[in-house]
User: Fold oxoglutarate dehydrogenase (succinyl-transferring) from Lophotis ruficrista.
Amino acid sequence: VMSILLHGDAAFAGQGIVYETFHLSDLPSYTTHGTVHVVVNNQIGFTTDPRMARSSPYPTDVARVVNAPIFHVNADDPEAVVYVCNVAAEWRSTFHKDVVVDLVCYRRNGHNEMDEPMFTQPLMYKQIRKQKPVLQKYAELLISQGVVNQPEYEEEIAKYDKICEEAHARSKDEKILHIKHWLDSPWPGFFTLDGQPRSMTCPSTSLNEEDLTHIGQVASSVPVEDFTIHGGLSRILKTRGEMVKNRTVDWALAEYMAFGSLLKEGIHIRLSGQDVERGTF
Assistant:
């Protein structure tokens, strides 16, 4: 499994979670073994000029905190983009570290239907209006190289348009949306045919007293002989041992028994969160 994150340029530079995610990238027990970050860099955050949005030349400079390689590529050149993405995937699979692909491109239309970018970015959008679209540019290149001819190109365009038109026409016949249509394969049987969840019953997870006592005794003892334990901890363990004898439990012991029962069945447990190692809470 390879994680790929898709970012916008303004979000990449401006959202704290991007920085946090980079710093999680190589932590023991948390590592993703490298994420490929793809930044769709249209050089404008909604209406904000980059100079007003960040202090660094590139939005991807935040990736330097983990020394991730950053590839800036001209998105008007599809073959260069594919080449760079192959290098990024290879880097990730070889070194298991994060890598960033910065697609330097532009947005031809506004942020949404209501947005007219000429209001805030007139100079930039005058340039964009003059730009040939990527598809046209690439088609002209391939035709000039003799890879395809004009009729073949037009046929492909027509074929794709037909797929879109047919899907659009079919969408008008859909009167109801089923949740299950949007779910991936690991969920067979989770929803009924009409899209409603099945009853949320689950098998009994109770334990017999013998198992609970055993887990409780393990939880209140030190597994190593001749081990000097902190006085405060030994008091806690002693109290816990007495609770097991008296057949009473507090929240902490109940939690311990739940974890212990899973471990006893060979199920791996990873504790995470605030101060779990010290057990402060």
The longest strand covers residues 35-41. DSSP finds ten helices and four strands in the chain. Residues 150-171 form the longest helix (22 residues).
